[in-house]
Write a structure and sequence with these properties.
221 residues; mainly beta; 2,3-Dihydroxybiphenyl 1,2-Dioxygenase, domain 1; seven-stranded mixed beta sheet; 3 helices; 14 strands; 38% strand; VOC domain-containing protein; Glyas_Bleomycin-R_OHBP_Dase
């Protein structure tokens, strides 16, 4: 599953634009007074100014990177952001996922992840560049009932359940595109920040229908 577009809300549009364009050096695709879009491999990542007063939306999402470039990507990021730590570690191996990842905050408090999935072998060489970002591969969807939400996505959009416990944490999709379904109020790893429910719009490559998660501000096209 490929996420063609991922759209999030923010109350810090200017700061985010500067961060993604100049700190992470992603390519600006387009912008207007209330939004901007940057390219992340096969995905257009869009931030839209929220109309809600006193609302501070934040999300968890991940970029797939060329798996051979993990160490170089970490070095690249460490010069630009503060990598998040857990138990004095700033890189994380997920054995069950056959992956390594690093995390950092953007100015809106989004928990951003660069993940190298070793099942997706690459032969990319030389230094890390943003050409080694493949796509947005994870979008967090906090919900009130994980099992119910996962079953709905499985039946309505024909997305397979991926590794998870089905109760408090259930990814749905595949390694190229995963909705990370978690209980609202669950802490996003590797932080102690509890997940919050904010509007999300995702466009899936090849999807020919529109779907809204019942009673939640999530739209999938």
């Amino acid at each position: 599953m490929i996420f063609e577009e991922v759209k999030f809300e923010t109350n810090l549009l200017k700061e985010l634009k500067n961060f993604y364009m100049h700190t992470l050096d992603l390519e600006l695709v387009k912008e207007d007074k209330s939004s901007f879009t940057v390219a992340a491999g096969e995905t257009n990542l869009i931030f839209v100014q929220t109309d809600a007063k006193d609302d501070s939306p934040f999300y968890h999402f991940a970029f797939n990177i060329e798996e051979s470039k993990f160490k170089l990507a970490k070095e690249y990021l460490a010069k630009r952001v503060t990598l998040l730590q857990n138990e004095c570690q700033d890189e994380f191996e997920f054995v069950d996922w056959n992956a390594h990842a690093v995390y950092f905050y953007d100015p809106s408090g989004n928990i951003v992840e660069y993940i190298a999935r070793h099942n997706m072998k690459s032969n990319s060489k030389d230094e890390f560049t943003n050409n080694d970002i493949l796509c947005v591969s994870e979008v967090g969807l906090p919900v009130l009932d994980v099992s119910s939400a996962a079953s709905i996505l499985e039946s309505e959009i024909n997305l397979p359940l991926w590794k998870g416990n089905g109760i408090s944490f259930q990814p749905v999709g595949d390694e190229q595109g995963l909705f990370i379904i978690v209980n609202s109020e669950r802490e996003w790893f590797p932080t102690h920040v509890k997940a919050g429910i904010f509007p999300v719009m995702v466009k899936i490559k090849g999807n020919d229908r529109q779907f809204s998660v019942p009673d939640l501000p999530y739209q999938i096209f």
